Every structure is written in structure tokens, then in C-alpha cells.
Amino acid sequence: MPTLLTDQYDIKGYESRFTGKGRIRLEGALPEDHAQRVHHALEQQTPWDLQIVTKDGKPAILSRAELETLSPEIIQTRLQDAAERAQTGLSYLRLGLDLIEADTIALAPFANLLKSEAFAAFCGRLTGLSGLELASLDAVCYRNGDFFTQHTDNSARLCFEWNFTQGWRSDWGGQMLFHSPSGDIEGGIMPRFNDLSLCAGDQPRSIASVAPYAGGPRFSITGRFG
């Protein structure tokens, strides 16, 4: 199982920042070689599903097998529906894989770490939240043009994203953006390799659309604690 680096952080300092802003970011929470293995699994060994929002606003998951049965015209219509839905409400378009349900051998060691009591306790110490229980866990890939519009998750006490994107540039988009009640951008987190971000579920946030000229996909593991 990958090793979680817990002794290099100012726990009290992170807890104070989380209490004040509702979000924190940690650099290098996995050893470099372990993080590289997770990146390789995401890039080369993950059987991605297509995750979209339908025209009537319902989440939909299309497996690789299902996609092979659909014509290019139908797939394009589904993608267009998700984009049009984004103009008026919640929508997203990305690749993903449920790591709670899926049997993904390549990502299993890291997924088991994130499902462990040790990881929940570590996140609890960083945020001052006790009794955290993992509610969801997903591998996620945003490609050119993919996005997730502004949303909150009031049912989650804490959300996290562990990023495994290499060589990203800020002008390629894909930032996790935090929105104020008035619609301003209060802050943003650029995809950085081996960065762990934690935020309160009720924080309005989005994933900026990945630019058409971005040099590669944006990879991460995301999860929610109840």
C-alpha cells in the first residue's frame, strides 16, 4: 500500500486555515515514486466511463462497453446536451470511475489507502472534523473541453481532490475555482502533481473548462466524507 506522509505538516496551522477559509492544500502527501505509480495507473490502466449530465439535468454514466454500441452521432448529441445544460445549471463532462464499486487492480493499493481509517483520521486532524466516514471515491480525468459547472455538496462534511496531473500550465484551464455569493472568484487551485486539496462540502466551486490546446489530460482522485 502507498505510504501517507503525515509528519511533515504543521497540523495546527492547516486546521486554523481550514477553520478560517474552509479549504486547504497540501503539497507532496505521497512519496514521489508512489505518486508516479498512481499517475501511471490513471494514464495507462484505468477503464474509464463517460460521466455526463443529460439534457433534463440527470447524471448519466456510459461505460466503455455502452459507448461501443452507440453511433458517433448519438455520442455527439449526448456531449452537446451536456454543454447546453451548462448554460443554465449544473452540468459536467468528464471521464470517471467509481473506486468504491469498481474492481480496478492498478488503483487498488491507493484506493485502499484512501478508504482506510488512517486517511480519514489524517483529514480529520487537518480540518478539526471528527468522525469522518468516506461516502464516495472516484478516479477522474478531464480532457480538452471537459468541465464541471458551479456546484456545492451540502450533504458532504468534507470533500477532497488528490491531483496527479503532470506539467500543467495555468492557461490550460482546469483549475478548481471557489465562488463567492456575489459570483466573484475567491480563489483557485491549479492542477499540480501530488497535491491534496480539502474543502468543506458547502463551498461553491467548479472545475474550469480545459482549454482545447491543453497538452494532456487532468488526472485526479476525488472523494467525499460524511
From TrEMBL:
Pfam families, A to Z: 2OG-FeII_Oxy_4
InterPro entries per record: TPA1/OFD1_N (IPR039558)
Residues of the Prolyl 3,4-dihydroxylase TPA1/OFD1 N-terminal domain: 139-225
Descriptive protein name: Proline 4-hydroxylase (Includes Rps23 Pro-64 3,4-dihydroxylase Tpa1), contains SM-20 domain
Native source species: Asticcacaulis taihuensis
Lineage, top ranks: Bacteria, Pseudomonadati, Pseudomonadota, Alphaproteobacteria, Caulobacterales
